Every structure is written in C-alpha cells, then in structure tokens.
Amino acid sequence: MVVVFVCLFFLAVIPVACRKSRTDVYHITCARNLSMIGNAMMSYANDHDGKLPRSGADSSFYNPVILQWDGADRFEAFNLKPDGSGGQASISSCFYLLVKYYDMLPKSFVCPGDSGTTEFKLDEDNVDNKRLVDLWDFGRFAFEHCSYSYHMPFSLNPPFGLYPLTTACDPGMAVAADRNPWIRSPAAWPKQFPDNFTPNSSRDVIKAGNSISHQQEGQNVLFLDNHVNFEKSSFCGINDDNIYTYWYYDGGIRMFAPGVGNPADRADSLLIHDQPSGGDPRPTRDRKGNVIEYY
C-alpha cells in the first residue's frame, strides 16, 4: 500500500513540476528576448535623436498589415509620398527595424509561450534573392512571427502620432510586452472585457487582463529605463495605468477601453500588436500543429 501510495503521489506531482519548469523556461526566454529588444531600441534611439523605433513616417497612419513588406525602398514599402510623408505602417514593422539595421534575429521576437507564433524564415515566403536586411517586415503574415506588443506610435486619425516614445519620456513608461489579450492573436480571439476591470479588482478579474502567452498569470514588460519585469497585473504603468487599454473621460469619469486606439496623453501606455486585416482563411494552430480555431 505504501509503495502504491508513493507511486500515485509521484504520478500526480511530476506532471505539475514539469509544467512549472516549462513555464519558467518560457518566462526566462521571453524576458531575455525583451531585454535584447530593449538594448537594440536604445541603440536605435541613440542614432535617431532619442526617438524609439517608428517605421514609415511621422505622419503615417496605423495599418496592421504592410502589403509591400519586400518593397525596393521605404517609399514603396510604406506607400509614402514623394516628400517622405504619409503612408501606413504597422507595429511589427517597427520591431523589424531592429532586424534590418541592428542585427537582431527574427527568433528573438518569438515568445515560446505564444502558441501559433513562429520564427520568420525567408524560404517560407519565397523571397527571391532577398536577405533579411532587404525587407521591411516579418513577411506576408508578420502577425504570426512577432509575439510582442509595442507602445502605439501612430495615429488612427489626425493629428498624427501625438505621443510616440522618446528617451526623454518618463522612465516608468511601458515600451513593449507580451501580446495584448484584448486583440486577436494566432492562439485566440480577444478576451471579453470585464465590466469591473480596475486596479482593485479581484485576482480572477485582473488575470483576465493579462497576456495569454503566460496562461494569464502575468506578462513580461520592457520599461523605458530598459529593465524587464514579469508583472502579475497589466495595471503596471505610471500611476497604475493599464498597459493594454487606452482611456478617455466620460462625464468626468476615467473609462478604460480595450483594443486598438490612441494614447490619451504622455503618461498613458498603450501596448498593442497587429492582427490579420481580414480575409485570411488559414487555420490557427498550436505548437504541435493542431487546429485551434479558424480566422
């Protein structure tokens, strides 16, 4: 009986320990990725008057897909006007500037806990006679090759990009993090936004606002002072600002809103990732290739 009990005990404990070990590895790998991204972003800022990466032009609108990601130049890639203004750019194309100009590898933009997201490889997109440095984004389906969200540097409408990040901003600003749970990802549709979502909500409600890349236990967050921390709540910005929502005032009351929007002011973090623009018939799959759901 003792032997049977010990065997049952280990059968129960070992899978849990293995899952925890795997989760810990995911956390560490993801944090290391964001740390490397942060270092490259600081190098970029040093070369661009303190401005953090922003693809396209200062007056570019946000678009989740860059159709000419293999364009001959930035004008073609982002559909810029002859004077270099206008056009459209995406979040992933901002990250790709670090691949193009700062020797980062595409695999550094993939969190192992982000199901359905894979390393971008040239041979998968049939790019003839092109190198990584010749491109402007992570391929035709960049959405599937970049696990991280980034502070919104573009506008959805004029005035253009009011609050892009620079090294002069508050060091506590969130720069990048795991995927936004309120925006569709390769692994899942957006989460339902709770009515009572505040910094003082119960743990279950707080978890609903965490990234799915780490089973909603929290998210790795890169801050402007270049440190990375695993935050158990997405209310981790300046003054408990939520990094995955934008906010507005309704009758003098501050209201949170999920999804894609614009930062309300220079202290409002809004980290988003791109999503398919529609019409993509391919199935969503997990790391083992099993179909999760269809777009």
Low-confidence stretches: 279-289, 291-295
Beta strand count:
11
Multimeric organization: single chain
Number of helices: 4
Helix and strand pattern: HEHEHEEHEEEEEEE
Overall pLDDT metric: 85
Largest sheet: 5 strands, antiparallel
Query: What is the overall shape?
Result: globular
What report would you give on this structure?
By secondary structure, this protein is an alpha+beta fold. It has one domain. Helix content is 23%, strand content 15%. It is built from 4 helices and 11 strands. The strands form 4 sheets. It has a 5-stranded antiparallel beta sheet with strand order 6-5-4-3-9, with helices on one face. A two-stranded parallel ribbon has the order 1-2. Strand 5 and strand 6 form a beta hairpin. It is globular, with a radius of gyration of 20 Å. It starts with a helix and ends with a strand. The relative contact order is 0.15.
Give the tags.
295 residues, alpha+beta, 4 helices, five-stranded antiparallel sheet, globular, two-stranded parallel sheet, disordered C terminus
Short description:
Helix 1 (2-47) crosses helix 3.
SSE arrangement:
Elements: H1 2-47, E1 61-62, H2 74-78, E2 88-89, H3 91-102, E3 148-151, E4 174-178, H4 203-208, E5 219-223, E6 228-231, E7 245-250, E8 253-258, E9 271-272, E10 283-285, E11 291-294
Parallel strand pairs: 1-2
Antiparallel strand pairs: 3-4, 3-9, 4-5, 5-6, 7-8, 10-11
Helix pairs in contact: 1-3
